User: Which sequence fits this backbone?
C-alpha cells in the first residue's frame, strides 16, 4: 500500500447531481424546477413553517398561558425529612450544604422548609424560606431558624 493507490471505501462517496447540463443528462430543460411560477425563478424562498397554504402548525395550535420570567422556584423539604436526617446522621444543624450532600437539593436550588410531619429534635435550620407552620414547629421543638 502506498499513497498512489489510496481511495475511499466502496459506496462511501456519491457523485453530485449535475443540474442543467443538457437534456441527455436527464436533468436539463427546466433543471428540476418544474414549469413557470415563483418556484422556477431565481431568488425564491418560502417562509419557515410554510405548509403550502394550509394553516401552519404554529397557528393551528392555540396559545395557552404565559411563563413568568421572575418566578422563584423552591425545592420543598418537609419536617419529617429533617427528622429522619437528624435521627440517621445525628445532626444538630441542617444547612444548604448538608441537604446538598444528602441529595435533597441541587447546587443551584433554593430550599423552602414545609410543615408536613413533626420535628422532635432541637435543630438550627438554615434555608431560603419557611412556611409559618414549619417555623412554629421548629421553634416549638427548641430549635432556631436562619434565613439565607
Assistant:
Amino acid at each position: 500500500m502506498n499513497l498512489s493507490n489510496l481511495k475511499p471505501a466502496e459506496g462511501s462517496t456519491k457523485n453530485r447531481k449535475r443540474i442543467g447540463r443538457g437534456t441527455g443528462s436527464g436533468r436539463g430543460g427546466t433543471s428540476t424546477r418544474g414549469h413557470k411560477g415563483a418556484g422556477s425563478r431565481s431568488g425564491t424562498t418560502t417562509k419557515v413553517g410554510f405548509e403550502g397554504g394550509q394553516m401552519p402548525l404554529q397557528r393551528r395550535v392555540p396559545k395557552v398561558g404565559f411563563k413568568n420570567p421572575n418566578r422563584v422556584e423552591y425545592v420543598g423539604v418537609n419536617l419529617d425529612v429533617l427528622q429522619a436526617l437528624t435521627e440517621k446522621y445525628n445532626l444538630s444543624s441542617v444547612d444548604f450544604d448538608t441537604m446538598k450532600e444528602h441529595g435533597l437539593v441541587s447546587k443551584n436550588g433554593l430550599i423552602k422548609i414545609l410543615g408536613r410531619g413533626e420535628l422532635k429534635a432541637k435543630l438550627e435550620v438554615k434555608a431560603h424560606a419557611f412556611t409559618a407552620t414549619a417555623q412554629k414547629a421548629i421553634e416549638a421543638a427548641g430549635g432556631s431558624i436562619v434565613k439565607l
In short: The mean pLDDT is 92. The longest strand covers residues 74-78. The beta strands are 74-78, 93-94, 110-114, 124-127, 129-130, 144-147. Helices lie at 57-60, 79-89, 96-101, 132-140.
